[in-house]
């Protein structure tokens, strides 16, 4: 079974949208898909896929582990797609004990399907990292906002640390080294993994080899969502460069998705966008990502540097093409009457509110920057 965990660090960037619609795309391509809502405490996948049947959820399972796990896996109206509901009632993943987490992972992995897609919660809690690390090729979603890209990076950094702690035996020289850095505090904030690894290799070659084996399998992939213009696509390069320079990670770019107000309508109608408007630019972008995933096997050999580079060039090109198509599409919607002048006014208003929010954020950041400069920081 292929496992695709979807995480982000920051909330509200489109994890659930990606998880739900990729699940639909895979199901339409003939795969037997199980979609699991692991955003415990803030579950909303059922709303996105329009799942109305009440039934056992992961929350209930955690409270009563005697429940037969297979009863959680519910049929949906979408052929080939089954769904495991989360639970908005139980406290978040932060409260999962490690034994609960491990049991849940075991049960999820024993589900009979071709593909398991896991929609994860925001944040970098251990449970979320462990769900993400079930596969070496999880997907990280970010929007172009600085806060989102920073969180995506921090999430991956924490994932790398989780891999280290998993690889280093308690009390080994490598473990002690890591603990010392952690206690010093600043060491981990200013993480520069390539240098750390050199230190670890000299101190504790056995631990180093163990970690090396797991980090070599770790090839997270990126989706950049909520673009407004092709220029936003450049943000992906920043994530790529930070991950490469500081974490030694090669992150493949799966593609960009533009922000599209049609998603709100699709959400209100309780239909995933792929079913609501398969021809929308938003849907086509998701199909394109699904195709890229379908073309590769899980645990394929690590991508060559050239292919990683290519994935960014391709995404930049797609950002340009989608932008043109989106303009045409809005015009078409206006002419066909699907999008009324009223909708357009509403969209413009919403965008103005967002612009004013961003302006405020900008003023705040400028203030921080000028303070840093006055304290000697050179930009
Ligand atoms: N590309 C997009 N265009 C328009 N709205 C979007 C897009 N991606 C996500 N959204 C909306 O943004 C909100 C947050 O998305 P969601 O998938 O729930 O994020 P997350 O799971 O990361 O918290 C939802 O209301 C969703 O419908
Ligand atoms: Mg979500």
How are the elements arranged and paired?
Elements: E1 2-7, H1 15-28, E2 33-38, H2 45-49, H3 58-63, E3 74-75, E4 81-84, H4 98-109, E5 115-120, H5 126-132, E6 139-142, H6 146-167, H7 173-184, H8 186-189, H9 193-203, H10 205-216, E7 221-227, H11 235-247, E8 252-258, H12 262-268, H13 273-276, H14 281-295, H15 305-336, H16 341-374
Parallel strand pairs: 1-5, 1-6, 2-4, 2-5, 6-7, 7-8
Antiparallel strand pairs: 3-4
Helix pairs in contact: 1-14, 5-6, 6-10, 6-11, 9-10
This protein binds adenosine-5'-diphosphate and magnesium ion.
Structure description:
With 379 residues, this protein is an alpha/beta fold. The chain has helices at residues 15-28, 45-49, 58-63, 98-109, 126-132, 146-167, 173-184, 186-189, 193-203, 205-216, 235-247, 262-268, 273-276, 281-295, 305-336, 341-374; strands at 2-7, 33-38, 74-75, 81-84, 115-120, 139-142, 221-227, 252-258. Helix 5 (126-132) crosses helix 6, helix 6 crosses helix 10 and helix 6 (146-167) packs parallel to helix 11 (235-247). The model has no long low-confidence stretch (mean pLDDT 89). It binds adenosine-5'-diphosphate and magnesium ion.
């Amino acid at each position: 079974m292929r496992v695709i965990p979807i995480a982000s660090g920051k909330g509200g960037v489109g994890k659930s949208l990606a998880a739900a619609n990729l699940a639909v795309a895979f199901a339409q391509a003939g795969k037997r898909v199980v979609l699991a809502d692991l955003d415990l405490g803030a579950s909303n996948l059922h709303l996105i896929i329009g799942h109305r049947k009440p039934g056992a959820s992961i929350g209930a399972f955690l409270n009563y582990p005697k429940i037969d796990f297979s009863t959680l896996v519910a049929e949906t109206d979408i052929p080939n797609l089954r769904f495991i509901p989360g639970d908005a009632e139980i406290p978040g993943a932060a409260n999962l004990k490690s034994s609960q987490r491990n049991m849940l992972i075991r049960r999820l992995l024993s589900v009979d399907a071709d593909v398991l897609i896991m929609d994860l919660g925001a944040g970098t809690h251990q449970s979320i990292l462990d769900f993400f690390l079930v596969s070496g090729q999880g997907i990280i979603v970010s929007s172009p906002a600085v806060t989102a890209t920073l969180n995506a990076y921090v999430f991956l950094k924490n994932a790398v640390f989780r891999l280290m702690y998993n690889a280093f035996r308690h009390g080994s020289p490598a473990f002690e080294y890591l603990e010392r850095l952690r206690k010093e505090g600043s060491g981990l904030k200013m993480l520069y993994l390539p240098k750390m690894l050199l230190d670890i290799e000299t101190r504790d070659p056995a631990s180093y080899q163990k970690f090396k084996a797991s980090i070599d399998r770790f090839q997270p992939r990126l989706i950049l969502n909520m673009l407004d213009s092709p220029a936003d696509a450049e943000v992906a390069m920043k994530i790529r460069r930070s991950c490469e320079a500081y974490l030694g990670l090669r992150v493949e770019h799966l593609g960009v998705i533009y922000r599209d107000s049609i998603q709100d309508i699709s959400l209100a109608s309780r239909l995933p966008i792929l079913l609501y408007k398969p021809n929308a630019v938003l849907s086509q972008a998701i199909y394109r990502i699904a195709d890229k995933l379908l073309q590769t096997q899980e645990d394929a050999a690590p991508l060559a540097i050239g292919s990683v580079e290519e994935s960014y060039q391709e995404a930049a090109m797609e950002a340009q093409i989608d932008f043109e198509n989106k303009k045409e599409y809005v015009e078409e919607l206006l002419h066909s009457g699907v999008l009324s002048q009223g909708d357009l006014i509403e969209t413009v208003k919403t965008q103005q509110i967002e612009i004013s929010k961003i302006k405020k954020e900008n003023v705040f950041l400028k203030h921080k920057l000028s303070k840093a400069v006055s304290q000697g920081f050179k930009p």
